[in-house]
Design goal:
Layout: H1 21-26, H2 30-53, H3 61-73, H4 75-89, H5 98-129, H6 133-165, H7 261-272
């Protein structure tokens, strides 16, 4: 047996609220106020940098570094940027320049953190060099507390930027092993191996087979020995006959050429010719 459902409490808050007249008046000003807060903080950082670098009367660089720390990590530098980001991103509707406001606030935090760390290091070294241990210890405690507030605001802004407005670069898809990347020419296959389309030498439509080139002896043919005399450089070739394509091919002798068949017969006739005797 089930119990009847309990009536809804009349004290429950409604699901949605209508905008109040005051909000309708100030809502268009949120983006402008956020930009003003960022601009004011930028001016404070710039003035603190000028005071750190510009020499003043009766002041040293180490003393200016100790006081300039609060210009870079003080109340204004820690609160104004995060307040601007909250106004632009945490109140509906989100401001049109919310991304720009978040990026500028993050840049101001980075600039202030660098100068705050630098001035803290310079001031601490000066205190320790002058053997003012107690002053250095108390100063470090105070500055550590301010740094904690500063880092808290910077972390909030960083999380908002990283989650909402950071777009990582797409990584190129790696190609499979053995496949050429698109846009690169394919390498020709070695002789005797099929090409990209599977054709091999000797097939119809394929490239000619890589045989021995004309004029060069192949690996299996015996070449001339080192002791054999070669042709003389001054001997002219036979007239009207093209040079042989293969250096090992024998050139037939011409009928009128010395050393040919007709020449040999003439030489034999000269040797057997009878000479008249002179008595």
């Amino acid at each position: 047996m089930t119990s009847p459902a309990e009536p809804a409490s009349g004290d429950a808050a409604p699901a949605s609220h209508t905008a109040t007249p005051a909000r309708r008046l100030t809502d268009p000003l949120r983006e402008l106020i956020a930009l003003v807060l960022l601009g004011a903080n930028a001016v404070f950082l710039f003035v603190g940098l000028i005071r750190l670098l510009a020499p003043a009367e009766y002041s040293t660089f180490y003393g200016r570094a100790g006081s300039g720390f609060f210009s870079f990590a003080g109340l204004e530098a820690a609160v104004l940027p995060v307040l601007a980001v909250l106004l632009a991103t945490h109140v509906a509707p989100v401001a049109q320049r919310a991304k720009l406001i978040t990026q500028v606030a993050l840049g101001e935090y980075a600039f202030g953190a660098f100068l705050a760390a630098l001035t803290l290091l310079i001031w601490t070294v000066d205190r320790l060099a002058k053997v003012e241990v107690l002053d250095a210890f108390l100063g470090l405690l105070i500055r550590a507390a301010w740094l904690a507030i500063f880092v808290s605001g910077a972390f909030v802004v960083f999380r908002v930027w990283r989650t909402l407005y950071f777009t990582p670069k797409p990584k190129p898809a790696p190609g499979m092993y053995g496949q050429p990347q698109p846009g690169w020419p394919q390498q020709p296959a070695h002789p005797g191996q099929p090409g990209p389309q599977g054709w091999g030498p000797g097939q119809q439509g394929a490239w000619p087979s890589a045989g021995p080139q004309a004029g060069y002896p192949t690996a299996g043919q015996p070449g001339p020995y080192a002791g054999q005399p070669g042709p003389y450089a001054g001997q002219p070739g036979p007239y009207g006959q093209p040079p042989s394509a293969d250096p090992t091919q024998a050139i037939p002798r011409q009928p009128g050429e010395p050393g040919g068949p007709a020449g040999e017969r003439d030489a034999d006739a000269d040797r057997t010719q009878r000479f008249p005797r002179e008595d």
